[in-house]
């Protein structure tokens, strides 16, 4: 019984110390005395926080939300070049996209272009890698007639990024060559080595 009495005393003393330390709540300041208060001249209006920002007035450059830029490359600046099923020839309607890439290369001689060949999900992985390579090289041959070939590289992704069991619309989007800008002369190896590219 003596041990129980000691434990009870220790608990009582601990509770008294705990409650004695928490007896006062801090006093909140008057809102009018704060920096954002109504009379302090604050410029932030909480109702305007979700209002759209005028980028031109703020001096910001508007950018297409589909453009993805990292340290080595810029993706999405050019539309992909699309191909027919099991074909690697550049259609007449798709040539203007490569012309835009050539014009960009003339304006930015420090940058290179990577042409990534893609396929839809049908076919073996090996066949699709070969077809993606043929598509990328067909785009390179056409682009080389418009811009320096030494600044153009190719890569076949085959069906790695294709929608598995996709419908006709998804498969049509998978049969393409993506035009990727490589920012630095040595960026090609770094961009190719990055996972998920």
From TrEMBL:
<protein>
    <submittedName>
        <fullName>OmpA/MotB domain protein</fullName>
    </submittedName>
</protein>
<feature type="signal peptide">
    <location>
        <begin position="1"/>
        <end position="20"/>
    </location>
</feature>
<dbReference type="InterPro" id="IPR050330">
    <property type="entry name" value="Bact_OuterMem_StrucFunc"/>
</dbReference>
<dbReference type="InterPro" id="IPR006665">
    <property type="entry name" value="OmpA-like"/>
</dbReference>
<keyword id="KW-0732">Signal</keyword>
<feature type="domain" description="OmpA-like">
    <location>
        <begin position="70"/>
        <end position="185"/>
    </location>
</feature>
<dbReference type="Pfam" id="PF00691">
    <property type="entry name" value="OmpA"/>
</dbReference>
<keyword id="KW-0998">Cell outer membrane</keyword>
<dbReference type="InterPro" id="IPR036737">
    <property type="entry name" value="OmpA-like_sf"/>
</dbReference>
<dbReference type="GO" id="GO:0009279">
    <property type="term" value="C:cell outer membrane"/>
</dbReference>
<keyword id="KW-0472">Membrane</keyword>
<dbReference type="InterPro" id="IPR006664">
    <property type="entry name" value="OMP_bac"/>
</dbReference>
């Amino acid at each position: 019984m003596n041990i129980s009495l000691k434990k009870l005393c220790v608990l009582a003393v601990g509770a008294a110390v705990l409650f004695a330390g928490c007896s006062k709540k801090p006093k909140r300041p008057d809102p009018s005395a704060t920096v954002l208060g109504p009379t302090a001249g604050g410029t932030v209006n909480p109702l305007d926080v979700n209002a759209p920002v005028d980028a031109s007035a703020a001096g910001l450059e508007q950018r297409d939300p589909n453009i993805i830029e990292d340290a080595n490359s810029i993706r999405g600046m050019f539309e992909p070049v699309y191909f027919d099923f099991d074909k690697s020839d550049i259609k007449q309607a798709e040539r203007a996209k490569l012309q835009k890439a050539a014009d960009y290369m003339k304006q930015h001689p420090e940058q290179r272009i990577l042409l990534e060949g893609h396929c839809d999900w049908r076919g073996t992985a090996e066949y699709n890698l070969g077809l993606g390579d043929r598509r990328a090289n067909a785009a390179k041959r056409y682009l080389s007639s418009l811009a320096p070939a030494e600044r153009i590289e190719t890569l076949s992704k085959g069906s790695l990024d294709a929608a598995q069991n996709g419908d006709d619309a998804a498969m049509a989007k998978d049969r393409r060559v993506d035009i990727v800008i490589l920012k630095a002369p040595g960026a090609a190896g770094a961009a190719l080595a990055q996972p998920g590219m």
